[in-house]
Fold this protein.
Amino acid sequence: MTELTYPRDYSLTGRDSRYAEEHHLVSAQWYQAPIPRKRMKELMQRSNGPAIRDTIIWFAAFAITGGLAAWFWPSLWSIPFFLAYGVLYGSSSDSRWHECSHGTAFKTPWMNDVIYHLACFMIMREPTVWRWSHTRHHTDTLVVGRDPEIAVMRPTVVLKVISMFFAIPQVWGAIKSLLLHAAGRVTEAEATFIPESERAKVYMTARIWLVIHLAVIAYAVSIGSILPMLLVGPLPTMYGAWVHVLTGLTQHAGMPEDVLDHRLNCRTVYMNPVLRFIYWNMNYHVEHHMFPMVPYHQLPKLHEEMKPYCPAPYPSTWAAYAEIIPAVIRQIREPGWFVQRQLPAVAPAKAAE
Amino acid sequence: MAQWIEACGKDDIDEEDVMRFDHGGKTYAIYRSPDDKFYATDGLCTHEKIHLADGLVMDNIIECPKHNGRFDYRTGEAKGAPVCINLKTYPVKVDGGKVLIDVG
Ligand code: FES
């Protein structure tokens, strides 16, 4: 029997992947709040309205910020517009790919697919790879050796976390992946969650994306300006990443690994309307993980239903970071330490680390 | 050989909804479509064996509650990632207000 040892082995094919198998942490039964089926059906209902409205605003915001950034370029007046454009490009794309990957943002499947592919390109997450990695993240959330999407591994490497705000490790990883996939190969870890039948799509998309990226660079060189590269490609993914990292780290950073209860390893954080637009309500993260069928626009209502069964939500992003920062700092020296959430007496924990 | 089993009453399932039915150590999902027809499939998703009866019926589609994999419940056809294997379907008939499925 594999022993629990620190530091953990986060690879998907190593010691802790065996540990997870042996300790029945793989594809396990997770806690679910007892919401009546009738109410769940209401909450799961799909509609195109909210996502079409949000997407029109989204496209308009791209046109305005990108247009004004290009108009004022190369003066300093372009900077605020680039900053706003970058957040749309490198951060709001995070929630768009995510919601559309679940197929819940729009009712009409092709609309989910179009926005999914567009947002994936912006955030440089290859659509087929991330669809499958995210599937695994939902099956085995924060299970070490199984979940490919653990953002802050322990012991914390502070420099890596800081560099994530500029998408340095993400984009570097994405470029390496694109080259590997374009060459017709997947990594050993990817082979554990991407079925054979899906791999041709992975290779084809990587080749198409590389052509697009090269075309943008070639165009920039031909006109003798970096402007096209500031609007499309890895640069806006990087200079606009900070908001999605800011919101994304609230999801699980510092929380326990290997527990089968999303109330213990996810945070629900109240955020302001601007962040919620960018983040498409993923601040209701316990709710999303427990019931991924509920569209983003219904999550506030689901939150109300789930309140009696969940720990208190964090009143603000600041409040979440007041916990996250000391937690990840402590995990530099104490990788086995984690934030413990208080569960309501009516709905105790099913399992604990 | 046909083996018709009573699964539920006709009115036990709402229109455009699904219900779980367990029999002989197996679990099935019984559907009532928006045009008031009944269908039956295996009750567990072919991806990770999650109960489809907790999912959402939209027209002729059942969406799995775990990773939103979609099947056409009339034919069992998997409609795309993360479901790649079709669902097994079973003949259904309605007799005297009862829904029967052929598990034979
Ligand atoms: S278990 Fe059904 S889609 Fe994954």
User: Anything to note?
Assistant: Chain B has a mean pLDDT of 96. Chain B is about 0% helix and 45% strand. The pocket of FE2/S2 (inorganic) cluster is lined by residues B 45, 47-48, 50, 64, 66-67, 69, 82-83 (CB under 6 Å). Residues 4-102 of chain B form a domain with the Rieske Iron-sulfur Protein fold (CATH 2.102.10.10).
